Amino acid sequence: CDAGEVSVLARTMIMNDLSICDRIFGIRDTVRLAVEKGVIDDEAGSRWLLVLEKDDRSGRFFASFTGYLVYGKKRLIG
Question: What is the reported pTM?
Fold first, then answer.
């Protein structure tokens, strides 16, 4: 298979604001769903959210996400 030209771009999003991070990634909804499905108990989920909120208030909250954009040109035969 002749792939032609292929390029990959990696971009990292850095967030220092819990409310923005929650809007983008649904942290609170994910914790709620994890509790509902029995992955974690309610106490653990609540405790984790409290730590995130405390870190956010003190300016210590940090989250990052790396995404990849892959694009290319396929060579046509014929």
Answer: 0.73
